[in-house]
């Protein structure tokens, strides 16, 4: 009963916060609204699904305070920017062409070709025959074998070259999602959708779902960032758009469901029930896991000052040693079944680095920075820097229901390469300062 009261209270309070944020920023893709809506939905559904479990609520309340702190930073930044610039100053900037389309098309084609090299390398490295991929029974056995080896820590990860190729599997959907809003030719738009195929092939061979999930999120992050750059608005809701969204959503979850079936090598009522529970755990289990961890350990953690959040870089430079799964400790809770996971959201990484109190201050500063970046992307001031900061934040937020994405060097390198991509395709735009200089010269004449 307590969970239901808390659930209703959160929905009411967060709805008011959503309304204030939207009325201030006037867009659904502002960083404050994206992170608020995403984690509120996660919390609400988790409370509803695991309603039989007695949450401590300490971790959930901390997340809500962190989101509020972030939004306050965004609102403060918005207020300061309105005083600094007059909105009419931006009118000249909107007449500029956004990106070099020809460069974007050619780079996307090159990335598509390179991204296919990783699944090919994976097949060759594991001595997988073509007959195994074409025979369904052999494919089931292969998936089960690869999954068992991966969880036992016996899978072949490949060398530096293979990991570099994996980076392009992630970079391609990031670039494709960013480009699709600028492409007007249907053939070029189709190229963007092809960016999911390499990750799909990896899923087919190794039964690794995280790669495909990451690619979908990366595509969405690129899509939202280019929307912010164009006009800050989502496409108008239509029957065609709704049908396409539902089709893509069901296709995505259908592929994940099929991959989980292939991992077991069986298909019966027991497997369907087990897979359904796994779906729930993967999607929403990180919220109760974080709540449990926070209430028991958050106030006694050591401070690692960024090496947990940026685990990939810390491992690359030899500051920390890489371990399987990032967090070894499993947490358990009971409802109609016993749940176990070692996935705690990106907020655990943040707290392990800086502690609960300082992390709230960091969220406030992030809110300030992201609002400035969002404004600069929309007005083309400091174009590439703003885009890079905004798109990395989107990914940190959306992938963060699992863990910090910067725990993986492949993601980190993909975003670094995206920064160079932005430099190559960008067409320089006048800054506010240059516009004011032109106005001054014009007035003197």
Ranges where pLDDT stays below 50 over 5 or more residues in a row are: 87-97
* pLDDT averaged over residues: 84
Q: What is the N-to-C succession of helices and strands?
A: HHHHHHHHHHHHHHHEEHHHH
Query: Would you count the extended β strands for me?
Result: 2
Number of helices: 19
Strand content: under 5%
Write down the overall geometry: globular
Percent range of helical residues: over 70%
Radius of gyration: 23 Å
The total domain count is: 2
Please state how the strands of the largest beta sheet are arranged side by side: 1-2
Care to describe what's here?
The protein is mainly α and about 450 residues long. The protein has two domains: about 1-95 and about 285-380, no CATH class; about 100-280, no CATH class. The protein has 19 helices and two strands. It has helices spanning about 1-25, 30-50, 60-85, 100-115, 115-125, 130-135, 135-150, 160-180, 185-195, 195-205, 210-230, 240-265, 270-285, 285-295, 310-315, 345-380, 385-400, 410-425, 430-445; strands spanning about 330-335, 340. The protein has a two-stranded antiparallel ribbon. The chain is globular. The protein starts with a helix and ends with a helix. The model is unreliable at about 85-95 (pLDDT under 50).
């Amino acid at each position: 009963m307590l969970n239901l009261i808390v659930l209703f209270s959160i929905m009411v309070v967060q709805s008011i916060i959503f309304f204030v944020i939207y009325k201030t920023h006037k867009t659904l893709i502002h960083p404050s609204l994206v992170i608020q809506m995403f984690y509120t939905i996660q919390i609400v559904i988790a409370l509803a699904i695991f309603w039989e479990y007695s949450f401590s609520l300490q971790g959930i309340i901390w997340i809500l305070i962190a989101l509020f702190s972030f939004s306050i930073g965004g609102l403060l930044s918005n207020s300061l920017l309105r005083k600094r610039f007059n909105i009419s100053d931006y009118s000249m900037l909107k007449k500029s062409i956004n990106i070099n389309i020809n460069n974007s098309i050619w780079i996307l084609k090159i990335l598509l070709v390179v991204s296919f090299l990783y699944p090919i390398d994976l097949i060759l490295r594991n001595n997988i025959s073509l007959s195994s991929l074409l025979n369904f029974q052999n494919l089931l056995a292969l998936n089960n074998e690869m999954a068992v080896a991966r969880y036992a820590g016996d899978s072949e990860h490949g060398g530096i070259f293979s990991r570099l190729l994996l980076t392009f599997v992630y970079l391609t959907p990031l670039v494709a999602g960013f480009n699709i809003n600028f492409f007007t030719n249907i053939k070029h738009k189709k190229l963007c959708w092809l960016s999911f195929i390499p990750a799909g092939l990896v899923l087919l061979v190794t039964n690794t779902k995280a790669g495909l999930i990451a690619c979908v999120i990366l595509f969405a992050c690129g899509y939202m960032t280019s929307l912010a750059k164009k006009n800050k608005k989502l496409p108008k809701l239509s029957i065609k758009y709704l049908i396409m969204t539902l089709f893509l959503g069901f296709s995505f979850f259908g592929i994940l469901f099929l991959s989980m079936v292939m991992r077991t090598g069986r298909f019966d009522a027991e497997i369907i029930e087990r897979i359904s529970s796994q779906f729930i755990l993967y999607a929403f289990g990180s919220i109760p896991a974080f709540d449990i961890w926070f209430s028991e350990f958050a106030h006694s953690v050591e401070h690692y000052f960024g090496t947990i959040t940026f685990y990939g870089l810390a491992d690359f430079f030899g500051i920390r040693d890489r371990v399987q799964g990032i967090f070894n400790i499993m947490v358990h809770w009971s409802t109609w079944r016993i749940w176990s996971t070692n996935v705690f959201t990106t907020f655990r990484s943040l707290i392990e680095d800086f502690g609960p109190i300082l992390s709230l201050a960091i969220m406030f500063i992030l809110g300030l920075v992201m609002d400035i970046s969002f404004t600069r992307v929309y007005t083309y001031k400091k174009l590439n820097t703003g885009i890079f900061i905004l798109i990395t934040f989107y990914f940190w937020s959306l992938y963060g229901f699992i863990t910090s994405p910067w725990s993986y060097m492949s993601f980190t390198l993909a975003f670094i390469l995206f920064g160079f991509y932005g430099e190559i395709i960008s067409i320089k735009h006048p800054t506010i300062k240059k516009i004011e200089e032109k106005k001054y010269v014009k007035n003197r004449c």
